[in-house]
Design a protein that fits this description.
By secondary structure, the chain is mainly alpha-helical. It has a single domain, classed as Winged helix-like DNA-binding domain superfamily/Winged helix DNA-binding domain (Arc Repressor Mutant, subunit A, Orthogonal Bundle), CATH 1.10.10.10. Helix content is 65%, strand content 9%. The protein has helices spanning 3-16, 21-32, 44-53, 69-79, 81-99, and strands at 57-61, 64-67. A hairpin with a 2-residue loop joins strand 1 and strand 2. The protein is globular, with a radius of gyration of 13 Å. The N and C termini lie far apart (42 Å).
């Protein structure tokens, strides 16, 4: 598995959690753009199952997950809490504009 993809997958989940695999795959391109990774070559479900089997995800409802504490620490070291909070804030503002017309 590609470590960079896994870290970015976890960061995306951290921003939008709780979330489903479909939610992460939808927002992944929006958060990371068209950087060097070719997103179509990655299987989000395989990555999700890999992370779930290694204790990085916690199930909150059927098909809906949040990050475990180990994954939160890993993502915080990768991005920093301030950047994660800023991305979450901009996402909330965008959604508010979309639904509060």
């Amino acid at each position: 598995m590609d470590e960079e993809f896994i870290i970015k997958y976890l960061a995306c989940l951290k921003i939008i959690q709780p979330a489903r695999v479909q939610d992460v795959s939808r927002y992944y391109k929006e958060f990371w753009g068209s950087d060097n990774l070719n997103v179509e070559t990655y299987d989000f479900k395989k990555t999700h199952n890999y992370l779930k089997n290694n204790g990085m995800l916690v199930k909150v409802r059927v098909g809906t997950y949040i990050l475990s504490m180990a994954a939160v620490i890993l993502v915080s070291n990768f991005m920093g809490n301030k950047e994660l909070d800023n991305r979450r804030l901009f996402l909330l503002k965008k959604q508010r504009k979309l639904y509060c017309k």
